[in-house]
Write a structure and sequence with these properties.
Blueprint (H helix, E strand, L loop, with lengths): L17 H11 L4 E6 L11 E7 L5 H9 L17 E5 L4 E5 L10 H17 L3 E9 L9 H10 L3 E6 L6 H15 L10 E2 L8 H24 L2
Helix pairs in contact: 1-6
């Protein structure tokens, strides 16, 4: 198997082996499809396989990232209107993996009752979804973490749900700005109990960081699958 070309370490944190990069590529090479849109807990799809979710402020690039990971330009609907996604959107590859696009937050113009409904739905999903392996919190590289991100981080810490930060739109930063942005994010979460160390820096325009994020998700899925098989054997 051909070794992948060397990558700038600033664009690829944490480090992955060539085998892990290939495992991520294979995992996402499957045919992805829309499964369900859930606006309430009562219509969530039944538990199946492993789920990883994507969260972040409105217009941070969640749908674009889902499309880049799956290699499908229009799998997740991209909207230029902040706050348009008001449901949990589920996608599946048929390989016991689901991606879940959570409603964006931090859109000040949204009615308060809608914000409360989205927040309650996200909180209930995070706290009660047994097959949720990790939440990837997307942060615009130009803006870093904001006050609007804190409630979600607190929620995940309280629920003891593993999460990892993903920088988006790094192509809009000068290369010299990327290291300080990544370091600032790492410092912001280093004392948070549920935060997974290491920031994955991505650009859906250039493809930077997409192989690493696929590999990260493949690793999470493998660990959850392995843990489940051990429990079934009584290990």
């Amino acid at each position: 198997m051909r070794e992948p070309p060397p990558r700038d370490p600033l664009l690829a944190a944490p480090e992955f082996t060539a085998a892990e990069i290939e495992a991520g590529r294979k995992l996402f090479a499957a045919e992805w499809r829309f499964v369900a849109a859930a606006g309430s807990l009562g219509v969530l799809p039944v538990l199946e396989g492993v789920e990883v979710a994507f969260a972040g402020r409105s217009n941070v690039g969640k749908s674009s990232l889902v499309n880049a990971l799956t290699g499908r330009r229009a799998l997740a609907r991209i909207s230029r209107t902040p706050g348009r996604t008001q449901e949990l959107i589920f996608f599946s590859s048929g390989q016991s993996l689901r991606l879940v696009d959570l409603p964006g937050y931090g859109y000040a113009a949204a009615p308060k009752h809608k914000i409360a409904a989205w927040t309650g739905l996200i909180q209930a999903y995070i706290a009660g979804r047994a097959n949720l392996a990790r939440v990837y919190i997307l942060v615009d590289a130009r803006h870093r973490l904001k006050n609007a991100d804190a409630p979600l981080l607190d929620m995940l810490d309280e629920a003891a749900v593993s999460y990892q930060l993903v920088l988006t739109k790094i192509d809009q930063l000068d290369k010299a700005e990327l290291a300080p942005a990544t370091a600032a994010l790492q410092r912001a979460i280093e004392r948070r109990p549920a935060a997974f160390p290491g920031i994955v820096a991505t650009s859906t325009r250039t493809g930077a960081g997409i192989p690493e994020l696929r590999a990260a998700i493949a690793r999470v899925k493998a660990e959850r699958d392995h843990g489940g098989s051990q429990r079934r054997r009584g290990g």
